[in-house]
Amino acid sequence: MKLFKKFLWILIGLVGLISIAVLLFVQHLKPEYEGEVEMADLSAKVEVYYDTYGIPHIYAQNTADAYKALGYVHAQDRLWQMELLRRIGTGGLSEVFGKDLLETDKFFLAMGIEEATHKTVKNLDPKSDEVRLAQAYLSGINQFIADGPTPIEFYLTGIDKKAFAMEDILNVMGYMSFSFAMAHKTDPWVSRLNDKLGPKYLKDLGLDVDPNTQLIPNFPNRAQRDSLSLHTDSIATNAMAQVLEPLEALSIPLFEGSNSWVIGPQKTATGKVIFANDPHIGFAQPSVWFEAHINTPDYEMYGYHLAGMPFPLLGHNRQMAYGLTMFENDDIDFYYETANAEGTQYKTPDGWRDFSTHEREIIVKDSGLVKFSYKETLHGPILNGIANQVQGDRPIAMKWIYTQEDNQLLSAVFGMTQAQNLKDFKTSVSKIHAPGLNVMYGDVDNNIAWTAAGKLYEMPKGVQTKMVLDGSSGEDEPLRFLDFSENPQSVNPPWGYVYSANNQPDTISGIWYPGYYLPENRGKRIVQLLEAKNDWDRENVETMINDVTSSMTPTVVKEIFKCINIKELSDDHSDKLDILGQWDGNYQLDRIEPTIYHRWEYFFLKNTFEDEMGPEMFKEFLATHLHKRITVPMISDEGGKSIWWDNVKTTDTIEWKSTIVTQSFQQAMEALEKELGQDREQWTWNRVHTLEHGHPIGQVESLRSFFNVGPFPIVGTREVINNLAFKYDGSGDYKVGSGPSTRRVIDFSDIENSRSILPTGQSGNPFSTHYKDQAELYNAGKFRKMLLNTEEIQSKTSTVLRFSKAE
After folding, report:
1. Considering 740, 772, 798, which residue would you say is the last residue of a domain?
2. How far apart are CA 467 and CA 312, in angstroms?
3. Burial letters for 693-703: b for 16+ Cβ neighbours within 10 Å, e otherwise?
């Protein structure tokens, strides 16, 4: 018995020691929000006050010291996220996650981001302010890497921490630029559909500019509306869409869309500008943005930073505010190249030219080194052989403005943060060549502005560039780049507001500029709300940015009633149709109409398009913006004679719109009864519309609850202002994939009470108290203050991290 008791006490002691060791290890991994850190090359003390939500407020005597501290505090909360984002453009994901990421790595290596980065870095002026401060930021990151604890993800994946360099900043910018582009999702599918069915089937897919939708108005320089030759091209493969799927699976953020509006003084209650912005990005954990407030004697900025980026893409101070949405222009073109019999040369207007050949290596976890090569022409990399999904032997080259033109993005973003007025700001914005962005601006002097940024170009008239272009003739090349003054824009318009919701801009200089614009739904709702009031205040705008009423679904429902065959419905299904008919398009959690509507819309799209497209192409169709644009025109009178209505699988009958609408509603009701039960009162939106913020390590089921945040039932839907987007997959389960990555409302009549929110939390460290402390507020549509007042910051701060010069 004594021996047993002795053994028991030894066992208890060992368990206690292990528990203590685990607790000490966990404590060691937490970010340090207070204390003192010695920092090399610091010129004076820096104090970082952390507010209630872990936002660092950095007080320094000069900007260089402030950016060193920023790099350190950014890294201690987001080093793992920084590591992932810098690896994408350089083909480094396979080293972390294994062979499943090999094709993605090959693709991004071939895109030339790394080569473009090296070229850009060589041309940077080391004495310029943007380079000097970027280097200070990198110095702070690298001190944390050297001295700080290693994030747990590095232990779990077995990779080592490595110092960051200027190239990493540019590589993150390169990935960001590519993820904005929509060509890789849409163009491959369009060309394959044309090859399969012919051009008559493209007519009703909304590929062309629609002048009858809600357009973003330009001011000044309205002009006669003509048409510019489209440059939305395609390739006979779905390679690019497929190589990006692993990024979605890993919850690496992809840029999707956005809203922003800036209300001028004539439409606000206080006579001062109110600015609103909510960029729509793929949800991930940690959240995409890191907030930081810098204050020095001659500079102040409250900014939102991407991982590894020193200068904020979103920001404000007491003088001005700026934000972004996606322009949705096309900056990628594809070209067929004509190769000689030996495959060593390709034809150009000036004769035959040798292919460039690149040999690359990728480290693959548990598989060693993988070598591959690809060819390149003057247009860009040859896609054949880069990804297994590329079909055929005819070489297809991809031309991307980001890698083809000089890169001044670092200077542009830095200049935006330093601008003293609207003129300075627009000068910096004009340096952006890619990605295409709608840059929104408001200031304390009552200026408001929207500018479409990016190098836009004109193609020869008559060139049908929706398909792959001819790379050998020289006749399918851009004629010119548009001057920046020709870009769509509006400055202080007389109607008193500017906005963007990724919808089609109006003409400027007589040109319709085509792209991958989203449907008018959000833009129409924004205009409806802004036009109705001239006494906007901050609280009204906060309500508006959370609006979940669709401007278009009531229109669709009316069309359903016009063409549905009531006689074919059971009494029970007719009653459910009546419920849908009373709906105002509101997407609250306790409503059943959204559940009915989306189940019907899925079957409507499936029954209309899948028989011709086939299951795989239909699935790809649902991954593009095109299907979001198609429901309204197809069900309206203009779509009444569409070639798509007839089911090609039924040879003895011809189906019409009424047949498809009725059949789809019946199938939707039967599916809902099977999935959610016979009691329609249980078909509420909260049961099917959910949001989970996924962490790459959270893909392992046993670690999911620790690393992921959620799932939560969530209000909203896709293409309402509070845009919570999901993909249709036939399951009737709408797992939200993207949405507002932040909601910001900045009121220049009371700048210190401006509001914001993040989807989960400020920290990417799962042991931090700020890993998910904003999630409940975000889900409820609530906000927190973006603190600017020094006295308030210091009085409400319980932790201070001080940086001092290393002796």
Report:
1. 740
2. 37
3. bbbbbbeeeee
604 token code pair: 């409507």
Which CATH number fits the domain that encloses residue 625?
1.10.1400
Q: What's the Cα-to-Cα distance from 753 to each of 394, 780, 784, 786, 798, rounded to whole Å?
A: 59, 19, 9, 7, 20
**Chain segment 588-632, per-residue pLDDT in tens:** 999 999 999 999 999 999 999 999 999 999 998 898 878 888 888
Q: Which one is catalytic: 191, 258, 287, 500?
A: 258
Annotated binding site for Ca(2+): 330, 333
pLDDT at 183: 58
Tokens 């990417």 belong to 764
On whether residue 662 sits in a domain, the answer given is yes
Count, in order, helices (H) and strands (E) of the chain: 24, 30
Q: Which of 107, 238, 88 is nearest to 170 (CA)?
A: 88
The answer to whether position 577 is within a domain reads: yes
Please identify which residue in the block is written with the tokens 């036939």. Answer: 730
Distance separating alpha carbons of residues 712 and 760, to the nearest angstrom:
12
- Asked if residue 659 is part of any domain, the answer here is yes
DSSP state of 582: T
| pLDDT, tens digit, 9 for 90 and up, residues 584-600 | 999 999 999 999 999 99
State how many domains the chain has: 2
pLDDT of residue 224: 36
Contacts of 780 (CB under 8 A, 6+ apart): none
- Note if 411 is an active site residue: no
Binned at pLDDT 50, 70 and 90, residue 204 comes out as confident
Q: How much of the chain is helix, strand and coil, in % rounded to 5?
A: 40, 20, 40
Q: By percentage, how much of the chain surpasses pLDDT 90?
A: 73
Give, in order, the Cα–Cα distances in Å from 194 to each of 143, 202, 207, 239, 395.
55, 7, 12, 17, 19
Q: How far is residue 621's CA from residue 625's CA, in Å, rounded to a whole number?
A: 8
Evaluate if residue 231 carries a pLDDT over 50. Answer: no
Q: What angle do CA 356, 358, 361 make, to 5 degrees?
A: 175
Binding residues: 330, 333
> What value does the mean pLDDT take over residues 559-567?
92
Boundary residue ending a domain (708, 740, 772): 740
How far apart CA 717 and CA 721 sit, in angstroms, is 9
Q: Six-digit token pair at 750?
A: 């009371």
The one-letter code for the residue type at 304 is: Y
Find the mean pLDDT for residues 125-142: 98
Q: Tell me how far apart the alpha carbons of residues 543 and 721 are, in angstroms, rounded to a whole number.
A: 11
Contact indicator for 333, 460 with CB cutoff of 8 Å: no
> Residue 611: which H helix or E strand, with range?
helix 593-613
In a domain, 614, yes or no: yes
Structural domain for 9, as ranges? 1-30
pLDDT (tens digit, 9 = 90+) per residue, 341-358?
999 999 999 999 999 999
Instruction: Please give the pLDDT value at position 679.
Output: 94
